[in-house]
Amino acid sequence: LSTLATMSSLTQKRRALAGQVPSNYVPGLGRGATGFTTRSDIGPARYQQGGEDQVPQGMPGAAPAPQNQQVTPGERNVVSFGQAPAGYVVGAGRGVSVKGEDQVAPGTKGEDLGDSNYSEFYGYGEALFKDANYDEDDREADAVWEAVDDTMDMRRKERREAREKEELRKYRSKLPTLHSQFADIKRELGDLSKDDWLNIPDANDIGAKKRKAPEKERFMPAPDSLLAQAQAEQGTHAQLDDRQQTLGGIATVAGTASQMTDLNKVGEGRNTYLQLKLDRVSDSVSGQTVVDPKGYLTDLNSSIRNQTADVGDIKQARLLLKSAITSNPKHSPAWIAAARLEVIAGKVAQARNLIVQGCEAVPLNEDIWLEASTMHPPDQAKKIVAQAVQHIPTSVTLWMRAADLETEDKHRRRVLRRALELIPDSERLWKAAVELETEESARVLLARAVEEGCCPLSVDLWLFFFFVA
Known about the structure:
- It is built from 21 helices and two strands.
- It is an all-alpha fold.
- Strands 1-2 form a two-stranded antiparallel ribbon.
């Protein structure tokens, strides 16, 4: 029975669904579905013959179509929106323009509305309504807003002025003006009398003027030709006359013009004459002398240096020594010879730089270290010898050189004791250390040297020890 009742109810539902559809029924509206219409369903827009108040066919509230009128498929979905307003342009809302005109929205012609002219705070850089007319309503609105701004400004005026005064006071406390700095002094000027004003001294020109900084003195190396020319002008290169060579300079040629007198040569001549007299006294036998005047003058003439030849020789020697250093940088005599050559040429600074380079190239040679300490001043020589003993701690010569550079005995003792710690079997160091000590300290050092096995075979140290003991 239940099955029969169910089947009968389904039959009734089918009959109800197959009946007439109620008015304004939209299929699927109950479940949220909505219908849509495309332009192909509507067709081209056409205006009806009726007035503007007539509702188009197919719209809610429209009059039913005549039953006997035949409607074509194209006219079935035609919708009429009434008469178009004046100035209406078809498609202007979606960007379609009249043929021959630019596609620009009204009121935006000539404006830059791109992203480059847009700010998040100020908006576009140009006024959007600059082409609009400024009427009475706009003027009244501006007046109202100006009145509102004035009211708000008056309300905050007292607080703003107080804040500005406080900020100005803090600023002037940090950076006072010149007027405030000299205000107390200007008040004191009122107490000056007329005599005080008259006795004010005149101000000198002590203003801060921009003076040109003095240029540093420049030194340029003199060419070798200039040095040779100066030597030729000051020196005397005269040949000896036959009678001078024969008589030993006693007789001279009368009326012979002399050249410029060189005081250095005069001093050298006096020294040479004094040495000649001393040699004559030492070599004389019964009042006779063995000095050959003719040969002496000949040797003296040959000893005069020719500066032009020396300059050429120095250049040639410099090239040879440079080649030797380049081919064998570990050859210390080449470095020493090159440095001494620069000293002879008068270039002491270049000689020092060259010998320092040699010390870096040959650090285990004590001769080059000694030469470097000789070429430098005492202060720099101490530093050089200190580096030398670090490379060659067992060199007695370097330790003795370090002791000689010290000016005080206590510093020399310190250097020698440090050397004896590294070289305890050096007799030379023990002797130098003993000479600087007192009698009691010398006895202790000698006992240590001969009895503790430092220098047990040194005869001099044993003799010193017995003499002091």
